[in-house]
Amino acid sequence: MAEYNYEDYNSSYESSREEHQHFLQFKKVFLPCTYLVVFICGLVGNSLVLVISIFYHRLQSLTDVFLVNLPLADLVFVCTLPFWAYAGIREWVFGKAMCKTLLGIYTINFYTSMLILTCITVDRFTAVVKPTKAYNQQAKRMTWGKVTSLLIWVISLLVSLPQIIYGDVFDLDKLICGYHNEEISTVVLATQMTLGFFLPLLAMIVCYSVIIKTLLHARGFQKHRSLKIIFLVMAVFLVTQTPFNLVKLIRSTQWEYDAMTSFQYAIVVTEAIAYLRACLNPVLYAFVSLKFRKNFWKLVKDIGCLSSLGVSHQWKSSEDNSKTCSASHNVEATIMFQL
After folding, report:
1. Residue 170: beta bridge partners?
2. Which domain, by its residues, includes 162?
3. For residues 113 and 77, is the Cβ–Cβ distance under 8 A?
4. How many domains does the chain have?
């Protein structure tokens, strides 16, 4: 994993050997189990979002463009987790080339996911605060969205080069995939904190503050639902990402904490919480949408999973009702509904 570096495996000098051994056993079980859970849930959720976005939404809006790139990044990200899970249980047995490749893939998709989240936030800001302009310039925004998505993948590749170049396999009681370079570690941490935490956080605070103010003055039945979704998105981001980034920041400024077993527990647990975003993103950014849920039931029906117990009829009635309701709303209400 990206956090598998040389310093992580220095023995604790302040803690007893027995306490440190307990921590190593805990880490050996807890992280691989967490990786596998995130892998399974993230694989299913992001695959569904990707299939529905491509074959049913057919990239009809800027939101659809981002909802292809976000699950794609998260999907590739979770596919690296089984390798790290095995390495946590045993050791790194996949060789130096695979080490560099997986470090690169892991990091590229981490940055891509976070930057796409930032773009989704800005897109929602434009759709709610300037709905008429967003609607009239939909084709132009689609073009810019595709260009922006391509640039994000390129930027993510560029900022991931240090991990790819300096990634290596080290023999520290067991074979470990990571990188051991103090200057590179500092650069990597600064980049991860800036692009992977502070930039999305700043975008959410600024954009969602204005969106909330706009919704509070708006008329429409979707207002309260939209506010709940906004608060949920903010809460999930803060709860999953803040602890791990805070712990990494503390470790970078106070290296003596790295010798404390209790602090090592904090790193492991907060890392596991941070990776839950790959499971929660599909729910937060796709399944809350009525349009997505409708297309999900279409997918279920198309692959023959609906039984003859009236589910198909219920889905059809719901679809007809939603179409009737949609037709009666103006542009602003429709765009606000995308929240």
Report:
1. 176
2. 6-282
3. yes
4. 1
pLDDT digit string (tens) for 87-108?
Answer: 988 889 999 999 999 999 989 9
> Does residue 188 lie in a domain region?
yes
Which distant-in-sequence residues (6+ apart) come within 8 Å of 154 by Cβ? Answer: none
Query: Does some domain include residue 308?
Result: no
Please tell me the distance from the alpha carbon of residue 97 to that of residue 114, in angstroms, as a whole number: 26
Give the global pTM: 0.80
Asked if residue 183 lies in contact with residue 162, where contact means CB atoms within 8 angstroms, the answer is: no
CATH classification of the domain holding 219: 1.20.1070.10
Collect all residues with Cβ–Cβ distance below 8 Å to 167 and sequence separation of at least 6. 99, 100, 103, 104, 177, 178, 179
Strands (DSSP E) along the chain, which ranges?
A: 168-172, 174-178
Tokens of 189: 């941490």
Question: Is residue 319 in a domain?
Answer: no
Chain position carrying tokens 């709303």:
329
